[in-house]
Amino acid sequence: MLDEIKNEIDGASQEAELLREYADSLERAAVSDNSRYKLLVLDENLKMWVAIEASMKSPKNMLPQEIKDNLTKLSKYVEQVTISKGVNMTDNYYRSLAEINRQISQGLMESVNTNLAQQEAYYLAKCGLDLSEAGKSGDKQQMVEALDNNQRLWVLIKTLMSSKNSKMPQETKDNLIKLADYVSRNTIKLGQNLDNMDQKMLSCFVNINRQISEGLLGHR
Questions:
Q1: pLDDT at residue 126, as a whole number
Q2: What is the pLDDT of residues 109-156, one digit of tens each?
Q3: 3-class secondary-structure state, position 211
Q4: How far apart are CA 55 and CA 126, in angstroms?
Q5: Is there a single domain that holds both residue 148 and residue 213?
Q6: Where a domain ends, among 111, 130, 154?
Q7: What is the chain's Cα-based Rg?
Q8: Would you give the DSSP letter of residue 52?
Q9: What is the rounded distance in angstroms from the CA atom of residue 47 to the CA atom of residue 39?
Q10: Cα–Cα distance list, 131 to 5, 128, 190, 192 (Å)
């Protein structure tokens, strides 16, 4: 599931970047006298929106249904305008398509970041609970799996906090990156001493997850 979340975020980031790039291209096409260039830009923009519409139908898409429905409607609008007007559309249409791209690019990342925070909060709480239960049971295999899942989650959080698309305050991002490094470093120590588990460190992990989970939900 963590890999799916990362892939979804990466995909949304790429879509947002493409939307911004094509917005710039559409504005250049609006003032261009080169019909071939205009046709190329409109064609590439149309292909992108067709791809976006297709991605909205994917069962793995984590965007809220309302947003997926709106993006599908926008895609059909872009298709209709592009096909009916073609390269002879007025400058206002080019700029209108560019503005749609920019607004959706921004909105897409805001929505993804909001849903991401909710999912991160859930998995932080779940990993904390798994660590706590593994500590109580004394099952070594259960503990190894709990430690591994928790570390993978924190590696993902560090990756996302290092991304330019993260909207978190810089101080928050820096603190989460430090926590991720702390968890990674001490997970190795815990894993090497399963027979003599450091209960204080384990409790520290559980508390970190709980507090950050609550903080993420509060931030959103």
A1: 92
A2: 777 667 777 788 888 999 999 999 999 988 899 999 999 999 999 998
A3: helix
A4: 29
A5: yes
A6: 111
A7: 23
A8: H
A9: 12
A10: 21, 5, 11, 16
